[in-house]
Amino acid sequence: MEKNDSDVLIIGGGLVGATLAILLGDAGWQVDVFDAAPPSHADETLGKGPPALRVSALTAASQRLLASLDVWPWLVSHRVSAYHGMQVWDAEGSGEIRFDAEDVGVDALGHIVENDLLLAVLRRRVEVLPNVVWHHGVRLTGYARDDQRATIKLDNGERRQAPLIVGADGARSPLRSMAGIPVCERDTGQAAVVTSVRTEHGHGGIARQAFLPTGPLAFLPLMIDGRDDHCSIVWSTTPAEASRMTALGKTGQSRVTLGDELASALGARLGRVEVIDIAPHFPIAQRHAGRYVDDGLALVGDAAHSLHPLAGQGVNLGLMDAAVLAEEWVRARRRGAEPGDPRILARYERRRRSENAAMLAAMQGFQRLFGSHQPALRLARNWGLSGVDRLMPLKRLLIRQALGEYGDLAERCR
Ligand SMILES: Cc1cc2nc3c(=O)[nH]c(=O)nc-3n(C[C@H](O)[C@H](O)[C@H](O)COP(=O)(O)OP(=O)(O)OC[C@H]3O[C@@H](n4cnc5c(N)ncnc54)[C@H](O)[C@@H]3O)c2cc1C
Q1: Domains of the chain (ranges plus CATH)?
Q2: Mutate which of 53, 56, 66 for ligand 1 pocket (most atoms within 8 A of beta carbon)
Q3: By the 8 A CB rule, do 363 and 215 touch?
Q4: Which of 13, 154, 184, 375 is 20 to 30 A removed from 49 (C-alpha atoms)?
Q5: Of all atoms in ligand 1, which is nearest to the CA of residue 282?
Q6: Contact partners, residue 268, CB within 8 Å, separation at least 6
Q7: What's the pLDDT tens digit per position in 62-84?
């Protein structure tokens, strides 16, 4: 069966695809979202009890975007954890930098949200839009394009057509490869272990990150039932170490060992650490699509770029892509232009590519600088961290970056 009444087909209904669907749906577009994941059952436990394993640190710009879509109040009514301070240090030396929301006159530097809670809230928001149709559990299996429209094949045998198509289908984007868009991929030689912990001392609303010789270790502060003694962990390390930690996370007794290792790697800043969940790990590769656009096609989120989680920017950059793409398309249509006009697609790419490329390069630079055992580089990074810590104007600039307030943002994110 072939249907062709949509304005746009969005492949992938993760955090970025769902947000784009709301942005275009709110503007009255007919949107179809196809996601390989099966329908999730409304889960009353979301945002209650122990924290979920996968979390994201959202910037102020992402918060503004979600607030403009009326999604933020729903999230807050469930569970979000604000952090007002950040401490970053070199575990091999004395360099340390501290950021505080007060330095730039804001209440919070960011908020930690649980990914499945955010996705559930976004989907609830989609449900009130009759012009957005969500197709669960369907996988893209084929893609072709003629002058007028994109045609996709799905694994349920259906074919669909529309003038515009978006790849929001993640780091290994099937649409990107079916469209023949090249990707530059770099294996970082690291894997990220994630888990949840309870700590002896309260985190006080401060996000902490120690740069260890094997990679960065982040303790992201969570407020659970009004208490500040839980953190979400992202420990980037060698694949062999990551596998060892995942094995330690499996049973109660060895979790004690993993907790001790976490406490010691953090320099005991939060006292004893108790691991309260499993500790899976994910390979970390950085990828950047050779181009973000093609005839009537745009890539957003991880499909366009995926980066090291050390700065917690992946979702944030993807949300900014979605906001800029929707802004360009909605504006174009309002003034009677074709949203698929190559000049409009090129403007989307121009507005987003340089920001994303800069962030990818920064992550690579950080990884090289802190992974180095060369004495000169170690000295430089210690001087660098402590030096920046004393330079208030530079520090303020870095805080603005952490708030996501840079680049040519969509109006609703400024
Ligand atoms: C350990 C770790 C920690 C992280 N921490 C942070 C953080 O603190 N802050 C932050 O901003 N980012 C963080 N990130 C990055 C962040 O998780 C990603 O950037 C983000 O999830 C990407 O969202 P997305 O919607 O683009 O892609 P995805 O979440 O990958 O969604 C892609 C969707 O496409 C669907 N799909 C795939 N193939 C098909 C197909 N053939 N047909 C139909 N659908 C398909 C999938 O089902 C999925 O729903 C972290 C990443 C890791 C690994």
Answers
A1: 2-80+112-185+287-373 (3.50.50.60)
A2: 56
A3: no
A4: 13
A5: 53
A6: none
A7: 999 999 999 999 999 999 999 99
